[in-house]
Design a protein that fits this description.
Strand content: 15-25%
Order of helices and strands: EHEHEHEEHEEHEHHEEEHEH
CATH topology: TIM Barrel
Number of domains: 1
CATH superfamily: Divalent-metal-dependent TIM barrel enzymes
Bound molecules: fe (iii) ion, zinc ion
Helix content: 25-40%
CATH architecture: Alpha-Beta Barrel
CATH class: Alpha Beta
Length: 276
């Protein structure tokens, strides 16, 4: 099944995000659980959620992706920032348990000068505090570009985090094509090899979702600036190979390209044509 969609605005609730997704021709989507650069949240609208759950089932939607705010940094050296991360995780996971098919994607964190090992340990500690056996939602570590002091720009860092997490069935990975390209994985010439490396280090069973983006920068630039599909340095040919790879064929694929809904609609139309 081809589960494709784009990032949509969550401002008007789940039914609106469902409608926006139908408009662009998708059957999955991603949304921010709250203001990505702030953190405040709106009250839960149960009617909206129940209606969405019905529609999503009726229209055979795939797993959707909830994205944590950028302000969440589980690896911060400031304890109040780590406390905020725990609060956001707890609140968001409570909301997400109302949705039957959702992943919670977050940026592992930035160690802000403390070093990678300390950062990884702080991320593990946070996850072990917030993950609960009874929660339904799986949390995904997003692969990062390696901008600044970001953690998670290579597969062994992600693996170290997963190794430290006690509730392993609650943790997975979301692979962002712009990020892995910017961090130095040659997905143009060797996407299959990159996935093999992912498999040998992390295990491909942990791969649960794809952020499909082209990149404004070059391989290994560690920049993280997304480009429209086919208009960046990754290019259409590579993207075609990616969306048709047997190991990711059934995963939810979400676009985070610089577009409004009409632009996303064009990209999704193109991707559907390229999908074998
Ligand atoms: Fe992200
Ligand atoms: Fe992403
Ligand atoms: Zn990005």
């Amino acid at each position: 099944m081809f589960y494709i969609g784009c990032h949509v605005s969550s401002g008007n609730g789940f039914v609106k995000m469902f409608q926006d997704t139908l408009y662009v021709g998708g059957n999955t989507f991603q949304f921010f659980t709250r203001n990505p650069r702030g953190g405040s949240t709106k009250p839960i609208n149960l009617d909206d959620i129940n209606q969405f759950n019905k529609l999503s089932k009726e229209y055979n939607f795939g797993y959707i992706i909830a994205h944590a705010p950028y302000t969440l940094n589980a690896a911060s050296k400031d304890s109040y920032i780590r406390e905020f991360a725990i609060k956001v995780f707890n609140e968001d996971l409570k909301l997400l348990d109302l949705l039957p098919k959702v992943y919670y994607n977050f940026h592992p964190g930035s160690h802000v000068g403390q070093g990678e090992d300390v950062g990884i340990k702080l991320i593990i500690d946070t996850l072990n505090q917030v993950l609960k056996p009874e929660q339904k939602t799986m949390v995904l570590l997003e692969t990062m570009a390696g901008k600044g002091s970001e953690i998670g720009y290579n597969f062994s860092q992600i693996k170290k985090i997963i190794d430290g997490v006690e509730l392993k069935d609650k943790i997975g990975v979301c692979l962002d094509t712009c990020h892995v390209f910017d961090s130095g994985y040659d997905i143009i010439n060797n996407f299959d090899g990159v996935l093999k490396e992912f498999n040998s280090i992390i295990g491909v069973d942990k791969l649960k979702a794809i952020h499909l983006n082209d990149s404004k920068n070059i391989l290994g630039s560690r920049k993280d600036r997304h480009e429209k599909i086919g208009q960046g340095n990754i290019g259409l040919e590579a993207i075609k190979t990616i969306i048709n790879h047997p190991l990711i064929k059934d995963l939810p694929i979400v676009l985070e390209t610089p577009n409004e809904l009409d632009g996303y609609k064009e990209e999704i139309t193109l991707l559907k044509e390229m999908r074998k």
